[in-house]
Amino acid sequence: MPEDLPTSLLRSFVTAVRFGSISRAAATLGVTQPALSQQLRKLERIIGRPLLYRSPSGVLLTRPGEELLPYAERILSLSAQALTETGRTLTGRCSVGILEDLVVAQLPQALADLARMHPDAILEVLILSTAAMREAYDDNRVQLVLDELQDVPAAPRWTVRRPLIWAAGPGVDVSADPLPVVLFSEPCFFRTAALQALAAADRRWRIAFESNSLAGVLGATRAGLGVAALMSANLEPGMSIPDTEALPTLPDVEIGLARHPRTEGDPLIDAVESALRRMI
Question: pTM of whole model > 0.70?
Answer without folding.
Answer: no
